[in-house]
Design brief:
This protein is α/β, with parallel strands linked by helices. About 20% of the residues lie in helices and about 20% in strands. The protein contains four helices and eight strands. The longest helix has 14 residues. A hairpin with a 5-residue loop joins β4 and β5. The chain is globular, with a radius of gyration of 20 Å. The protein has a six-stranded mixed sheet, with helices on one face. Strands 7-8 form a two-stranded parallel ribbon.
Length: about 210
């Protein structure tokens, strides 16, 4: 059976939930399809992950931060809890565990979505799945020896999960620096490879890991 809906939002992260808040305020019919759980991208971060912006800047639509530590930095699980609480505050119509398998324009101009739970026809579709879904591999990476453990940042959990030895971290953005700092503090020899992006050089690290 083909379900009909005015607006379908794909992704229950900050963007998807904020848009849902505004549509709810306008009494617009809509649903949010999330292949995992609310805030799924953040649930997959490494164990010690924390935001690099202070809590007072975390202002979702209609919900400024009102917690007890505005100058602190939310850890991974606290941020996921914050997002789930936000979704619950206005009963966001999130459908968890629904995978969007296809999206195309129908003959009448509406959108046809094929999902793991059935087909949906929508007048409007919003893709709120984030902008960095695929890891970037530098040109030299395919030439690394097979004996070298190579993982992406999304696969990293903690220093204990890595094989013993030195670590090369390729990328000096927020993710690379946080992971490199944690590895350094755990006693690993780490080398941080910096590209053309802004480098957080105040972390004074003697080594690296590639994530």
């Amino acid at each position: 059976m083909n379900e009909m809906c005015d607006v379908v939002i794909i992704g229950a992260g900050q963007a998807g939930l904020s848009l849902s808040h505004e549509l709810s305020r306008m009494n617009r019919e809509h649903i949010i399809l999330e292949r995992g759980r609310t805030g799924q991208t953040w649930r997959g971060r490494w164990d010690s992950f924390c935001l690099v912006l202070p809590n007072w800047t975390i202002n979702l639509a209609g919900a400024p931060y009102t917690g007890p530590d505005p100058d602190g930095f939310m850890a991974r699980d606290a941020f996921v809890e914050h997002m789930c609480g936000y979704a619950a505050s206005f009963s966001a119509p999130v459908r968890e565990g629904v995978v969007v398998q296809s999206l195309q324009r129908g003959p009448d101009g509406r959108f046809l979505l094929g999902t793991s739970t059935g087909d949906i026809t929508a007048r409007s579709v919003v893709l709120a799945t984030g902008g960095f879904q695929k890891p970037y591999l530098p040109a030299g990476v395919p030439g690394f020896p097979s004996s070298l453990t190579l993982i992406d940042a999304e696969e990293y959990t903690n220093p204990q999960a890595l094989p013993e030895g030195k670590v090369l971290v390729i990328g000096s953005g927020q993710t690379g620096c946080q992971i490199a700092e944690e590895l350094h503090e755990s006693g690993r020899e780490v080398v941080l490879a910096c590209g053309r992006a802004v480098s957080y050089t105040h972390l004074t690290l003697p080594t690296i890991l590639r994530v």
